[in-house]
Design goal:
Blueprint: E1 15-21, H1 35-44, H2 49-54, E2 56-61, H3 64-80, E3 85-91, H4 95-99, H5 103-124, E4 127-130, H6 148-154, E5 158-163, E6 169-176, E7 184-193, E8 196-199
Parallel strand pairs: 1-2, 1-3, 3-4
Antiparallel strand pairs: 5-6, 6-7, 7-8
């Protein structure tokens, strides 16, 4: 939401691209981005919903092949709107890798798609934010992101979010950062807006 805010208001004053990796044909439609939820979140952030919706490109990828095609399409979109887009958000980046039976093929496809995103964002000075799954670990051990070593090395910052026992409270652990050598954690409070969670400022 803050992407549309002025730079002085901790925003980018620009458009954003949102890519959701989800199986559109599955029964649970709650994972599909709902414009009404965007409007509710915008109001909670004190932003006019029309402004947010006008400056937001949304696209879905429903399998690995489509994820790669979406990466190429958005690279063209960004190149044609160099001055307007300053944020690219990818939800469930590792979804298809996690569900794939052929991990080698899945890893190569993910590597190619993420490589396209990283190159186009670096070339046009666009912030790239991704969410993905983490490996299951024992209690107290910080899990590594799913996707192999390429994913670990290709990004600058990795943050692990774990839901605490208290409702709407999460523990955020900084796993990787160029200026931090050891993991650091902080507790994040959120507030509910319908079925969505918003981080408290």
């Amino acid at each position: 939401m803050n992407c549309v805010l002025p730079v002085r208001g901790h925003g980018f004053e620009s458009m954003a691209v949102y890519i959701n990796n989800v199986d559109y044909y599955q029964p649970d439609k709650s994972l599909v981005l709902n414009p009404e939820k965007i409007a509710i979140a915008a109001k909670c952030a004190a932003i006019e919903p029309k402004i947010v919706l006008k400056n937001l490109f949304v696209q879905m990828a429903y399998n690995q092949q489509h994820q790669l095609a979406v990466a190429k399409q958005n690279a063209e979109l960004i190149e044609s709107n160099k001055q307007d887009i300053k944020l690219l958000v990818i939800n469930n980046l590792t979804k298809f890798f996690k569900e794939s039976k052929n991990k080698n093929y899945a890893a190569n496809t993910l590597k190619e798609a993420l490589g396209i995103f990283c190159r186009i964002c670096a070339r046009n000075r666009i912030a790239l934010v991704c969410t993905g799954d983490a490996n299951v670990t024992s209690r107290g051990i910080i899990p590594r992101p799913i996707g192999g070593t390429f994913l670990k090395h290709s990004v600058n910052v990795i943050v692990h979010l774990r839901e605490c026992s208290q409702p709407s409270v999460f523990k955020a652990t900084l796993i990787k950062h160029q200026y931090a050598k050891t993991p650091k954690s902080v507790i994040i409070n959120t507030r509910k807006t319908g079925r969505m969670l918003l981080l408290d400022r």
